[in-house]
Amino acid sequence: MNTGPVEDRLAIRELVEEFAAGAMRIDADAWGETWAEEAVWGLPSMDKPVEGKQNVIEAFREKLAYVEFMSMISFPAELVVEGDRAHGKCYCRELIFPKAGGQVVVVGCFDDQYVKRDGRWYFTSRIYEVMGKG
């Protein structure tokens, strides 16, 4: 169940949309603007989560270097806003077209942590779990 001010929950939804748009454009700078300085990003393909905004952005560049283009559809759920902090889940479906050819479909869920600074929401942590892949 979602709780907290509607304005904040809408702003977090827009943050999720900005993240997906940056990923779809393979635009590390735009994608990176969704992260707080204390960013933590974890994927199943990583030995351990990457920490620090600049390290997270560099990891994104490395992960997507092999991608020709992709589609990412995401939606947040279970958003709980408590002042300038929030947490929730974000379910997503990715259709990835590698430069080498073929396609990969990934369905998963991010466990998200958010912070609001100067009136804007950012991700502090996104840990991804793959629910299905084909």
Can you offer a commentary on this structure?
The protein has helices at 6-24, 28-32, 53-64, and strands at 35-42, 50-51, 67-82, 85-98, 104-117, 120-133. The protein is an alpha+beta fold and 134 residues long. The protein has a single domain, classed as Nuclear Transport Factor 2, Chain: A, CATH 3.10.450.50. The model has no long low-confidence stretch (mean pLDDT 97). InterPro entries: NTF2-like_dom_sf, SnoaL-like. Residues 6-126 form the SnoaL-like domain.
Topology record:
Layout: H1 6-24, H2 28-32, E1 35-42, E2 50-51, H3 53-64, E3 67-82, E4 85-98, E5 104-117, E6 120-133
List keywords for this structure.
alpha+beta; 3 helices; 51% strand; 6 strands; 134 residues; 6-stranded mixed β-sheet
Q: What is the structure about, briefly put?
A:
The protein is built from three helices and six strands; from the N terminus they run H-H-E-E-H-E-E-E-E. It has 134 residues and is an alpha+beta fold.
H and E string: HHEEHEEEE
In what range is the share of β-strand residues? over 45%
Average pLDDT across residues? Answer: 97
Strand arrangement in the largest pleated sheet: 2-1-6-5-4-3
CATH-derived architecture = Roll
